[in-house]
Amino acid sequence: MEIIRKNFKDSLSTVYSAIEEADFLAIDGEFSGISDGPSVSALTNGLDTPEERYAKLKKHSMDFLLFQFGLCTFRYDQSESKYLTKSFNFYIFPKPFSRNSPDIKFICQSSSIDFLASQGFDFNKVFRNGIPYLNQEEEAQLREQYEERRNQANGAGTPSFISPSSKGPVNVPDEHKDFINRVIAKVDSLLSNTEKTVDLEPCTGFQRKLIYQTLNWNRVDEEERRRREHEKQEREQEELNDAVGFSRVIHAISKSGKLVVGHNMLLDVMHTIHQFYCPLPEDLNDFKEVTMCVFPRLLDTKLMASTHPFKVHNLRRTPSNLPELVRPYFSDGFQSYNTATEQLHEAGYDAYITGLCFISMANYLGSFLTPPRSHISAKSKLIEPFHNKDHVLYVTFPKEWKTSDLYQLFSAFGNPCTCTSCFLWHAQN
Amino acid sequence: MEIIRKNFKDSLSTVYSAIEEADFLAIDGEFSGISDGPSVSALTNGLDTPEERYAKLKKHSMDFLLFQFGLCTFRYDQSESKYLTKSFNFYIFPKPFSRNSPDIKFICQSSSIDFLASQGFDFNKVFRNGIPYLNQEEEAQLREQYEERRNQANGAGTPSFISPSSKGPVNVPDEHKDFINRVIAKVDSLLSNTEKTVDLEPCTGFQRKLIYQTLNWNRVDEEERRRREHEKQEREQEELNDAVGFSRVIHAISKSGKLVVGHNMLLDVMHTIHQFYCPLPEDLNDFKEVTMCVFPRLLDTKLMASTHPFKVHNLRRTPSNLPELVRPYFSDGFQSYNTATEQLHEAGYDAYITGLCFISMANYLGSFLTPPRSHISAKSKLIEPFHNKDHVLYVTFPKEWKTSDLYQLFSAFGNPCTCTSCFLWHAQN
């Protein structure tokens, strides 16, 4: 399901219930670039310590925009012994919602843009129709602005038509009483619907002030005032929700506490937190803590595939020859991806494929049980050892070793893959 | 005329001859943003000295991409007493042409992107079909790479199949002579067209080396070798031209020495030089020198409009009520812009409108002559005082003055406009 600015609000309940009913979620992001400094291969060099890798990515990757977010939800249907999936492909763009809203600058990397262009990526959908978002601080600031304005309107502040020295109305001087009474008569006539428009006589600034205060204090009864206040608050809440935009989807994923699966997902997680929650902390341990708060259960299929018992298992299988049993079916009304005609690098499809890889590996664990089981739930204890692993492959090795030694060491289960967006079957080639 | 990667090469001669025959050229650029630091209004604050303004724009504007370039050529047709115009709208993108080519990073500013999106700007045309370009240093580097490779192929270097110690071929050892003769027979048969493919026996690295040198030295006669060398050079020259891409249009404008007109053109000129010639110098005077080399005759219609005798002249005229006399006609095969349905912020249209403003002001100068003249040529001496003015409005004023004093001073001929892309009639409102 493609979700852009126009259909976002109407689709939100569908997204929420898909998350709510899911056994696990798979995510994937597309970015406007990878590295604004070192080459991509140097940036994702498999030999860095986790601290080094985190620091490099934080420094050189966070100014790019995550502009397409794929979410695929998987729910196991016991009666059919199959997964039911719903795939969402969100286009995201920080459209400024007012003159005072943050005017985000982001970097584009020509090679990444050119690559996405070659895959048929639709940039107009991002820039014309992308869903806006706010991080938590921006949301809090906007909420504060609305509250301040509301307090002012309720007389707590000092709006321009109330004299700072007196909170109440000033007396209407005798020489202006006729004028004000004429205005009241005209407005009464407007409110009682005998007139459709009202033409006021030209007046001075002081007379205008008298009109405001008279109409404000006299014309609207208390109940009507409360009703209007309530309407206004609802309108403001809706404006606020619109501005928070796509971040609400991430909040829902976070709140669900569901297992979130990604492939080589470090950059996805970093961008998601950076863009929709808060600027990334300096320290890797602080980042891990923030991550645990936002996504309590994460699983990286690339790391899982490089861990016992998968690292010796031949996982060269491509999605098109996944066993029939594993293949999920698509919920009604949802775009069905055909794995024979790959749509790699559309985030929704990539999330879907990542989910398939996870299902395949989870079920493989079932083959070790006595008796073997063909389906292993995402909530199974068997999966837990793969949760929340370091997002970086940390290799300790004698200091006199060279890169070539490491590559040789790893060659038994495939070269360490330095590509940040490749898939399982690439990683294993 | 819309020009993208696909039709660029075929359109180039049309562009060249339009420039060649023109009396003057108008240009305009669209960028991926304006400021990565201060707000746009602070960046283009009319009260800065030229040095300050140049330094600010160089620091905060040059990392954006000029991704649409409008060129409108104007040729005066004496027999019709009208201008003939040709308008070109180029989409530009630094698509990497090989693995080793520069991987340009550029910034996008959400408010600028959102503004262009609201004007119907087609981002897919930029990112999927934009014409590549190189600056002069990149072009020189690429040319050098080609030359190095050519020298290597001609034996001046040390390609892998020639032993470093001997430039000539090694002798074919007796035990390999049969093998080599069989290969020669097969290749001869291929060349004489009795066979369509050639299957070589499996061979060792040394045998492969023998094959290369034998075929290289023996099979091709001198004339054929020269023909192929020539073909290869032409192919390389074409590859080089493709990589230089859009920069060739700027080179042609520069080489023509024609008057180049823009509206509020400082940013356009800075981006054009930065993107297609060289990184901008630190110092404003050096920048002016570079600019004089690239564009020997520049005229800014916004500055012209704020100079005697225009600053007291009512220029609130919009393009739709330009006198009939001024309105140019469009050459056959060229998109005709209808000034009634404005297409503001398409670079080709903006360049066209800028040209109209210039014609209107140039002709107004003719009204001061005795007898008055209705047409003043772009080459007239009357225009020369407006050439190559500082690109910044430098106001000297007593140090105790405040901004409000300056605004009041200028109010007689409109507020100093701080918008970088507005037009004459906005500037004068």
UniProtKB/TrEMBL annotation, chains A, B:
Coiled-coil boundaries: none
Domain annotation Poly(A)-specific ribonuclease RNA-binding: ranges: 384-415
Domain of life: Eukaryota
Span list, region Disordered: 146-168
Gene Ontology molecular-function annotations: metal ion binding; poly(A)-specific ribonuclease activity; RNA binding
Biased composition regions of type Polar residues, renumbered to the chain: 152-168
Entry's Gene Ontology BP terms: nuclear-transcribed mRNA poly(A) tail shortening; priRNA 3'-end processing; siRNA 3'-end processing
GO CC aspect terms: cytoplasm; nucleus
Family note: Belongs to the CAF1 family.
Protein name stated in the entry: Poly(A)-specific ribonuclease RNA-binding domain-containing protein
Gene name as annotated: PARN
